[in-house]
Amino acid sequence: xxxxxxxxxxxxxxxxxxxxxxxxxxxxxxxxxxxxxxxxxxxxxxxxxxxxxxxxxxxxxxxxxxxxxxxxxxxxxxxxxxxxxxxxxxxxxxxxxxxxxxxxxxxxxxxxxxxxxxxxxxxxxxxxxxxxxxxxxxxxxxxxxxxxxxxxxxxxxxxxxxxxxxxxxxxxxxxxxxxxxxxxxxxxxxxxxxxxxxxxxxxxxxxxxxxxxxxxxxxxxxxxxxxxxxxxxxxxxxxxxxxxxxxxxxxxxxxxxxxxxxxxxxxxxxxxxxxxxxxxxxxxxxxxxxxxxxxxxxxxxxxxxxxxxxx
Length: 311
Fold this sequence. Notes:
- The chain is mostly helical.
- It has one domain (68-305): Methane Monooxygenase Hydroxylase, Chain G, domain 1 (Up-down Bundle), CATH 1.20.58.
- The protein has helices at 2-21, 26-35, 41-45, 47-50, 62-88, 95-114, 116-122, 125-131, 144-153, 174-178, 197-220, 222-227, 231-234, 237-266, 281-285, 287-290, 301-305; strands at residues 267-268, 271-272.
- The chain has a two-stranded antiparallel ribbon.
- The radius of gyration is 24 Å and the shape is globular.
- The model has no long low-confidence stretch (mean pLDDT 90).
């Protein structure tokens, strides 16, 4: 009993110190515990709310698979951004911390990559090509969180459309650079400059938010953070391996899993169908065209030249 009493006293002292530090009354908070109810799984996870977020637009059963799959993707993107944020805001970073966060992020992308079999092999092709017409002009392209993952991973120059990358640098006005990001190719005719409806809608919804986001990540993205590390940390073999693994996982493995799934549903009898948003998805998605590489200095000249070509 004496030990128990001493333990309780210690906890109370720690609570008092905690609430004192934030100018709160300890007694009031303790009294609040008398009136609170025990937590349970379904309230903590908000299960009922989560399971009521799936609303179909068609009568086809496999649309439910499509909706839930993409909602799971968005949750994983949020987990990825959560990990990147911790790296971005940490002042002193060692190789172990950086490597651990990168491997966590890579595991999330490994899960995203392997999960494409749910889409590729888990939906009826005929059903998909019927219910997808009800989704026009929406597109997976419009995932703002995935764009944020890219902004938070590397410098903006590495996300510029490969055709225009040599003409843009840090002195280029942001608006001009933004209009030449690689994913603009999915919704813009570069000969006329005209943007598609789904690209205009996406920018109307998120462009200002992206600008605010990139103001911070312009100097706090993973690549820039890496380059500011001391030489002994930058040359750490485990960290370099983790950086390369993340880069390859996102920009080769995950992209190609997405590409192959799209090809499975949209390339029928040798004829390539247009994506719901109207994008030229083959050249937009395949890594050999855009050569999206987060950490270019960590790859050899040969690797950069032939990025994605052997797939």
